[in-house]
């Protein structure tokens, strides 16, 4: 069950991990001593930090989904326990809510 999703999630996990490594490297790279340059770099850092946070969040969702495949709870809505629409899972393999619950929690 869910072999396809598992493969996709594992691929996604690798991609996100690679992206995260790059972003971390970006953030820890040495800054120039020029104060004008530093201002630009600080702005850039904020963008990179935001990206890193988003990537981390996505990565943790992917990890959770993989765990749910192992434990057999994958494909079930966390809120109402109903099966999540397969089309939704195909589009968003780490979704944990069915469409109804996702819409409810979004409003
Ligand atoms: Zn639901």
Q: What features would you describe in this structure?
A:
- Helix 1 packs antiparallel against helix 2.
- This protein has helices spanning 3-28, 35-71, 86-91, 99-106.
- The chain contains four helices and no strands.
- It folds into two domains: 1-74; 76-107, no CATH class.
- The chain is mainly alpha-helical.
- The protein binds zinc ion.
- Residues 77, 79-80, 82, 97-98, 100-101 line the site of zinc ion.
State the major sheet.
none
Query: What class, by secondary structure content?
Result: mainly alpha
How many individual domains? Answer: 2
- Overall pLDDT: 92
The proportion of residues forming helix, as a percent range, comes to over 70%
State Rg. Answer: 18 Å
- In DSSP terms (H or I, runs of 4 or more residues), the helix count works out at 4
* Unreliable stretches: none
* Heteromolecules bound: zinc ion
Q: What gross morphology would you assign?
A: elongated
What is the CA–CA distance across the termini? 32 Å
Strand percentage: under 5%
Order of helices and strands: HHHH
Number of strands: 0
Any chance you could write out the topology, listing elements then pairs?
Blueprint: H1 3-28, H2 35-71, H3 86-91, H4 99-106
Helix pairs in contact: 1-2
Concise overview:
By secondary structure, this protein is mainly alpha-helical.
């Amino acid at each position: 069950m869910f072999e396809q999703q598992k493969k996709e999630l594992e691929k996604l996990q690798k991609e996100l991990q690679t992206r995260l490594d790059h972003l971390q490297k970006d953030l820890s790279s040495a800054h120039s001593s020029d104060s004008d340059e530093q201002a630009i770099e600080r702005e850039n850092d904020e963008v990179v930090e935001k990206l890193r946070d988003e990537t981390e969040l996505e990565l943790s969702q992917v990890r959770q989904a993989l765990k749910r495949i192992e434990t057999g709870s994958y494909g079930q809505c966390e809120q109402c326990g109903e099966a999540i629409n397969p089309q939704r899972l195909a589009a968003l393999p780490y979704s944990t809510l069915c469409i109804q619950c996702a819409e409810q929690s979004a409003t």
